[in-house]
Amino acid sequence: MTFSRPIDDRYFEDYVEGDVHRFGSIAVVANEMIAFAKRFDPQIFHTDPEAAKQTPFGGLIASGWHTAGLMMRLYVEHYLTHVASLASPGLDEVRWLKPVRPGDSLSVRVTVLKATPSKSKPDRGAITSLIEVFNQADETVMTLKSVNIIARRPSR
């Protein structure tokens, strides 16, 4: 499904409960995985290709936080409004379901679970979304729920 409005003219009203959006393709690059992990998640199955062979994963895997960063890139480029995003109060139910490996290509499916207008601030609302991340074999590698505060379309 595609949005009825482009990302630079997308407001709260354009996120319709039940709509499902699929997009993106982003490559998982070994040296980026390792650099990220060395700085933020220095476990051997993320940082050392040789040592990773001796782990239960049998080889190098991306940090879940690196996978989340790749997901966020796709989410911001394709789903989250560029003109009306007012931040996020958080994420729920983050799950890493399958290892992500160098050479994988990730895509994202986002389902609008709830679109709730604010009772105290009528110029905005909260969008709750289920985000699913898939590899090139269409296997689910990560899921989470996000809440974004989105401005309502200004009256003209």
CATH homologous group name? Hotdog Thioesterase
- The CATH topology corresponds to Thiol Ester Dehydrase, Chain A
What's the main sheet like? 5 strands, antiparallel
Mean pLDDT: 97
Our Rg estimate from Cα atoms comes to 18 Å
Shape: elongated
What's the CATH C level? Alpha Beta
Number of helix segments? 4
* DSSP helix fraction: 10-25%
Our measurement of the CA-to-CA distance between the termini, rounded to an integer number of angstroms, reads 27 Å
**SS-derived structural category:** alpha+beta
Order of strands in the sheet with most strands = 1-3-4-5-2
Number of strands: 5
The portion of residues forming beta strands comes to 25-35%
Number of domains: 1
CATH architecture: Roll
Give the H and E element order: EHHHHEEEE
**Segments where pLDDT lies below 50 for 5+ residues?**
none
Notes on the structure:
The mean pLDDT is 97. This protein has a single domain (7-151), classed as Thiol Ester Dehydrase, Chain A. The longest helix is centred in the middle third of the chain and has 15 residues, at 64-78. The protein has helices at residues 30-40, 44-47, 49-52, 64-78, and strands at 20-27, 90-96, 105-117, 124-134, 140-151. The chain is elongated. It has a five-stranded antiparallel sheet with strand order 1-3-4-5-2, covered by helices on one side. The protein is an alpha+beta fold. Helices cover 22% and strands 33% of the residues. The two termini are 27 Å apart. The relative contact order is 0.23.
